[in-house]
């Protein structure tokens, strides 16, 4: 399953799987909604860590996140409470893994 994006007047509804490769597209859709944009996650089934971090950034910038499932809310909460140094180490490991995969 892939991500389906529906944009209304001030609402972006996500359905399916939200992965890191979708962040730029979702950001563009939100920008098209103007300053009162909200994300509706009622039909979102799966999300990756970059998607979670994107949601955190959205909320920090005043974009409402509605209808998130309990597992997404819990993950957002855990990610927010995670120390910055640990997040940077995790990001560094992912970048190293990605470079390694490209070299193979």
Structure description:
The chain has 104 residues and is α/β, with parallel strands linked by helices. It has a single domain (3-103), classed as Transcription Regulator spoIIAA (2-Layer Sandwich). 53% of the residues lie in helices and 25% in strands. It contains four helices and four strands; from the N terminus they run E-E-H-E-H-E-H-H. It has a four-stranded mixed β-sheet with strand order 1-2-3-4, with helices on one face. The relative contact order is 0.14.
Strand content: 25-35%
Instruction: Tell me the span between the first and last alpha carbons.
Output: 28 Å
Q: How would you sum up the major sheet?
A: 4 strands, mixed
Secondary-structure-derived class? alpha/beta
Tell me the name of the CATH class: Alpha Beta
CATH architecture: 2-Layer Sandwich
CATH topology: Transcription Regulator spoIIAA
* Number of β-strand runs: 4
Low-confidence stretches: none
Characteristic terms for this protein:
four-stranded mixed sheet, 104 residues
List the helices and strands and how they pair.
Blueprint: E1 3-7, E2 11-18, H1 23-33, E3 38-47, H2 49-60, E4 64-66, H3 70-81, H4 84-103
Helix pairs in contact: 2-3
Provide a brief overview of the structure.
With 104 residues, this protein is of the alpha/beta class. The protein contains 4 helices and 4 strands; from the N terminus they run E-E-H-E-H-E-H-H.
């Amino acid at each position: 399953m892939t991500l389906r994006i529906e944009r209304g007047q001030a609402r972006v509804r996500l359905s399916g799987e939200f992965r890191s490769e979708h962040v730029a597209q979702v950001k563009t859709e939100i920008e098209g909604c103007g300053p009162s944009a909200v994300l509706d996650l009622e039909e979102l089934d799966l999300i990756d860590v970059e998607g979670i971090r994107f949601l955190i950034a959205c909320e920090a910038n005043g974009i409402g996140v509605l209808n998130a499932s309990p597992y997404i809310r819990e993950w957002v909460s855990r990610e927010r409470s995670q120390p910055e140094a640990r997040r940077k180490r995790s990001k560094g490991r992912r970048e190293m893994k990605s470079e390694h995969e490209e070299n193979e």
